[in-house]
Amino acid sequence: MEEQHVVRALAALAQAHRLKVFRLLVVAGPQGLTPGAIAEALEVPAATLSFHLKELSHAGLVTQERISRNVVYRAAFERMDELLTFLTENCCKGEACLPVSSTSCAC
Predict the structure, then answer these.
(1) pLDDT at residue 105 tops 70
(2) Is residue 82 domain-resident?
(3) Distance in angstroms (rounded) separating the CA atoms of residues 63 and 28
(4) CA pair distance 36, 86, nearest whole angstrom
(5) How many domains is the chain partitioned into structurally?
(6) Once rounded to an integer, what is the mean pLDDT over residues 79-98?
(7) Fewer Cβ atoms within 10 Å of its own Cβ: the N or the C terminal residue of the chain?
(8) 15-33 confidence digits (pLDDT tens)
(9) Residue 91: burial class (beta carbons within 10 Å; 0-12, 13-18, 19+)
(10) Which parts of 1-107 are beta strand (E)?
(11) What Å distances lie between residue 8 and 1, 4, 95, CA to CA?
């Protein structure tokens, strides 16, 4: 992932509403959510949500698909993985950072 794309993605996530939207879409998984469902879940006005979805989309962090009369937004998991890889590729000089424990997430 190029540094300019990393900066754009991190800038998009550096706003509370956008971070909440992105996290909600991650939880929703591949099924995604409509703007109405997102607005209801986060109690965000439609106009405000539209702006934030546009910003996340421009950063490549969400995708949208028209299904019949609805638009469904999904987290762009591949892009998220690229961002995480970029941020951690030189972590701890290639050594394990934390010991593996039974309470670790097995995601």
Answers:
(1) no
(2) yes
(3) 13
(4) 33
(5) 1
(6) 82
(7) C
(8) 999 999 999 999 999 999 9
(9) exposed
(10) 62-67, 70-75
(11) 11, 6, 29
User: 0.85 cut: is pTM over it?
Assistant: no
Q: Return the amino acid letter for 14.
A: A
* Tokens standing for residue 15: 């706003």
Q: Which phi-psi region, left, alpha or beta, contains residue 35 (left: φ > 0; alpha: ψ -120 to 50)? A: alpha
* Residue written as token pair 């638009």: 71
Q: How far apart are CA 69 and CA 85, in angstroms?
A: 36
Distance from C-alpha of 61 to C-alpha of 8, rounded to nearest angstrom: 10
Q: Domain of 44?
A: 3-88
Q: Is residue 97 part of a domain?
A: no
Q: With respect to residue 107, please indicate whether it lies within any of the assigned structural domains.
A: no
| Of 58, 66, 52, nearest in space to 23 by CA | 52
Residue 103 belongs to a domain: no
Matching residue, tokens 């019949």: 68
Judge contact between 12 and 55, C-beta under 8 A: yes
CATH of the domain at 10: 1.10.10.10
